[in-house]
């Protein structure tokens, strides 16, 4: 009886803490969006922001509504998609160092998207599909290349294979950049991760796979939680671990591909955000998935605002501030995993 009461109290405390963090991250996303809308080449006083958004006669309406709002919407969806993709892939491969970029999934998607940009420039709607094909192909190669004998899997095996695949696919991206040098400036922005020039069309292109992937992730919560167990225990409760791992990897590839098709090789979001969320609410995916989506959206929106304003009028790729945060955090995770 006492143990049951303690368990109920623990669950209640966790639910309260999760609620607090949900509100905090929701507010962080809203505040970051509002801040991003007011900052740029022409600053908008916060008191004038509502009028600038809805009043077409406002002198800054076109800037706020047609330029900044879709760009920040793209940033929010890209961040949410990559954060949830990271959470799914970390569960699928049972490694907190997993990330769409570090595992080569993003690079595989990017190579396919660049081929689409070069050879089918009039069909932007197919870019997320091409990215998904490239991403899921990279994930399949990774799972095959990194598989070891039972009981001999090393926690860094997947990361090492992923780094090798990332280098291989990035070499393909570099070859395309060299062969089509006249498009080099746009390709450089793509490889670093950039939201420069995105509009409402790109917002639609990234929103659809992001929303579909997040819904599929929420529908897979039970399987994801069971996958946290060791393989024999997960199989013992009726889960086909192999099929579940492939299905989760496909959802992660869909999310990453949609983000890459619009924003390019945006890195470290899927590494930093899910691990940070786990520290505060634990590994349960009914909390991890929605909170990672909120946190990822806020993270990329703030990074993009920093990229636009840090050295204005020069605009940095959004991947630069993200790397400044993500690379030290990755080194910390590697140091922590050495034990």
CATH architecture: Orthogonal Bundle
What is the CATH homologous superfamily assignment?
ABC transporter involved in vitamin B12 uptake, BtuC
Flag low-confidence runs.
149-153
CATH class: Mainly Alpha
Percent strand equals under 5%
Largest sheet properties = none
| Series of secondary-structure elements, N-terminal to C-terminal | HHHHHHHHHHHHHH
The number of E-state strands comes to: 0
Count of separate DSSP helical elements = 14
For this structure, the CATH topology is ABC transporter involved in vitamin B12 uptake, BtuC
End-to-end distance = 37 Å
How would you describe what is shown here?
The protein is built from 14 helices and no strands. With 339 residues, it is mainly alpha-helical. Helix 5 crosses helix 11. The chain starts with a helix and ends with a helix. Residues 149-153 have low confidence and may be disordered.
């Amino acid at each position: 009886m006492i143990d049951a009461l303690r368990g109920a109290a623990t669950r209640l405390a966790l639910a309260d803490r999760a609620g607090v963090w949900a509100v905090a991250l929701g507010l962080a996303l809203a505040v970051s969006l509002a801040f991003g809308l007011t900052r740029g080449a022409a600053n908008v006083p916060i008191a004038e922001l509502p009028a600038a958004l809805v009043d077409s006669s406002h002198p800054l309406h076109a800037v706020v509504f047609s330029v900044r709002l879709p760009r920040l919407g793209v940033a929010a969806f890209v961040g949410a998609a990559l954060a949830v993709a990271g959470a799914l892939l970390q569960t699928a491969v049972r490694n907190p160092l997993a990330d769409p970029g570090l595992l080569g999934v993003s690079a595989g998607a990017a190579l396919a998207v660049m081929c689409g940009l070069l050879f089918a420039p009039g069909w932007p709607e197919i870019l997320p599909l091409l990215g998904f094909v490239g991403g899921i192909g990279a994930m399949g190669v990774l799972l095959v290349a990194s598989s070891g004998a039972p009981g001999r899997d090393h926690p860094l095996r997947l990361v090492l294979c992923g780094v090798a695949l990332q280098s291989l696919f990035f070499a393909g991206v570099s070859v395309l950049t060299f062969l089509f040098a006249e498009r080099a400036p746009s390709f450089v922005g793509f490889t670093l991760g950039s939201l420069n020039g995105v509009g409402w069309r790109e917002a639609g292109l990234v929103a659809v796979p992001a929303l579909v992937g997040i819904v599929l992730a929420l529908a897979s919560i039970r399987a994801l939680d069971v996958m946290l167990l060791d393989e024999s225990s997960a199989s013992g409760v009726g889960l086909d671990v192999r099929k579940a791992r492939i299905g989760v990897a496909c959802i992660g590839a869909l999310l990453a591909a949609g983000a890459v098709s619009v924003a390019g090789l945006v890195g470290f979001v899927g590494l930093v955000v899910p691990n940070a969320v786990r520290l505060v609410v634990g590994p349960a995916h009914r909390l991890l998935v929605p909170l990672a989506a909120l946190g990822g959206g806020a993270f990329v929106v703030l990074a993009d605002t920093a990229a636009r304003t840090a050295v204005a009028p020069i605009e940095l790729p959004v991947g630069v501030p993200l790397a400044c945060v993500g690379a030290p955090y990755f080194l910390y995770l590697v140091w922590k995993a050495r034990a």
